[in-house]
Design brief:
CATH superfamily of the largest domain: ANL, N-terminal domain
Low-confidence stretches: none
Oligomer: single chain
Radius of gyration: 22 Å
Strand content: 25-35%
Shape: globular
Distance between the termini: 55 Å
Number of helices: 17
């Protein structure tokens, strides 16, 4: 079997609009997307990009990144979009570990990467690769390799250093097809892309599933609640996805009450459950509001709720069609409450150039999520907690070890322990317990951290301690610290 995905979509959906880019004031039909992708593939080949290569992409949301994705697929190269919110040392570390054939720079601002990291990399602009015209690349002549990497998306781990999750063509398409089936996506559906494109949400929650179904994605440069509410009505948007902090911002605006929102079929929250007030704000407007669950390593749309689940408060739904799931206790025994393990064609191919981390993440053919879930007698799942030393803030993973390492690199900090605490807007934020070596104030520490970490990782609360409590085994006693700050 030979698969040229954008060509197949063009043949199926042709003149339908696939993408609207608000900043560019431009639209692309499926036929135009294929034409531009073919041209991009030709330019990549001319510049020596070959099957199995990786392309680092530094860009904000942009339809040209989507064009490049499909162009890279034709060549057999993987797209590696980087998080522009990272501090300069973090971004340099990521780019340095990818060993890209090319660094592609698009729109948006980001920290300067040291020339020592860039040395030896070819650099080219996104617009240059994806402009109209050019010599189209030939369609692939070899059988499709379903395991070839299509995307590498960086996600964290309990060790704190972000890892590149390798998503094959098989994994990307399995997630897209199960989303189309489970969410009942149709050709007349549309969404506003609010997730960043370095995140699995940017690609796999709705963008690629909607392209498969013939739907349309409206790309904004940044999350702007008032603009989103306006465009839902103006563009007759049918589906709205987001993380809890986004929905909190939306319903908190006076424009929310004034907007019609009549076109919305449903809204969908991921990256943690949205507060009941948010859920009720949509449902009172007659808009179904669903919760869901997923992870970069196994597709973001693993569990989803539908209309029939609205009578089950707090459920994150049931498994998608192709995901095999089980809940296990610490001894690996099947339970109705336990750590979620996932298998199936939606699974990633491992972490980029990190077999040790991949082995740690796996349990046989299953990936360990580190999340504890509960399953009721009807097969509906509910989120309980996390086994990993991490928390989510605004839908982004914050890994405790990484924040502690940054804190303890400050000369005035002797020791630090970090936990996640509830926050009405962001879901969770960091609380840092700090033992000082020499006098230092909170403002100085925060300024220091912001130079080394993305802002969402910087703790919002600091507790100054004479000592950090430890367990009998000598480890930091996180449960005790959580009891100190309360529920």
């Amino acid at each position: 079997m030979r698969l040229d995905l954008s060509a197949r979509l063009a043949a199926r959906h042709g003149s339908r609009v696939a993408l609207t880019d608000v900043a560019r004031d431009a639209t692309l039909t499926f036929a135009e997307l294929e034409e531009r992708a073919a041209g991009a593939a030709g330019r990549l080949r001319e510049r020596g990009v070959r099957r199995g290569d990786r392309l680092s992409v530094l860009s904000g949301p942009d339809m040209n990144v989507v064009i490049l994705f499909f162009g890279a697929l034709k060549v057999g190269a993987a797209l590696v979009p980087h998080n522009l919110r990272l501090a300069a040392p973090e971004l340099a570390d990521e780019v340095g570990r990818v060993h890209s054939a090319m660094i592609v720079r698009g729109r948006g601002t980001f920290p300067e990467i040291p020339t020592t990291v860039l040395a030896g990399h070819r650099r080219v602009s996104l617009d240059e690769l994806t402009q109209p015209g050019g010599t189209p690349s030939k369609r692939p002549e070899e059988p499709t390799d379903w395991e070839i990497p299509a995307l590498v998306l960086f996600t964290g781990g309990s060790t704190g250093r972000p890892k590149g999750a390798v998503l094959s063509l098989r994994a990307v398409l399995s997630n897209a097809l199960t989303t189309v089936e489970g969410w009942k996506l149709q050709g007349d559906d549309s969404t506003i892309l609010v997730f960043p494109m370095f995140h699995t949400g940017g690609w796999n929650v709705l963008l690629l599933p909607l392209l498969i179904s013939g739907g349309r994605s409206i790309i904004l440069e940044r999350f702007e609640p008032v603009e989103i509410l306006r465009r839902i009505d103006a563009e007759k948007v049918t589906i709205l996805g987001g993380v809890p902090s986004m929905f909190i911002d939306l319903v908190g605006r006076p424009e929310f009450a004034r907007a019609s929102l009549a076109s919305l079929r449903f809204a969908k929250s991921g990256g943690g459950n949205s507060p009941p007030a948010v859920v009720n704000a949509f449902r009172e407007r007659g808009i179904p509001f669903y919760q869901g669950y997923g992870l970069t390593e196994a597709g973001p749309n693993l569990l989803y709720s539908t209309t029939e689940d609205l009578s089950r408060p707090g459920t994150i739904g049931r498994p998608n069609l192709l995901a095999d799931m089980k809940l296990v206790d610490e001894q690996g025994h099947d339970r109705d409450v336990g750590e979620l393990l996932v298998s199936g064609p939606v699974l990633f191919s491992g972490y980029l150039d990190d077999p040790a981390a991949t082995a740690t993440a796996m349990s046989g053919e299953y990936v360990r999520t580190g999340d504890v879930l509960r399953r009721d007698v009807d097969g509906f799942y509910y989120f309980v907690g996390r086994t990993k030393l991490m928390f989510k803030s605004g839908g982004e993973n914050v890994y405790i070890a990484e924040v502690e390492e940054a804190l303890e690199s400050h000369p005035a900090v002797a020791e630090a322990a970090v936990i996640g605490i509830p926050d009405a807007r962001w879901g969770e934020v960091g609380c840092a317990f700090v033992r000082r070596a020499t006098p230092v104030g909170e403002e100085e520490v925060v300024t220091f951290l912001r130079a080394h970490l993305a802002h969402f990782k910087v703790p919002r609360r600091f507790v100054w301690r004479d000592e950090i409590p430890r367990t009998p085994a000598g480890k930091k006693d996180y449960p005790r610290l959580r009891r100190e700050v309360g529920p």
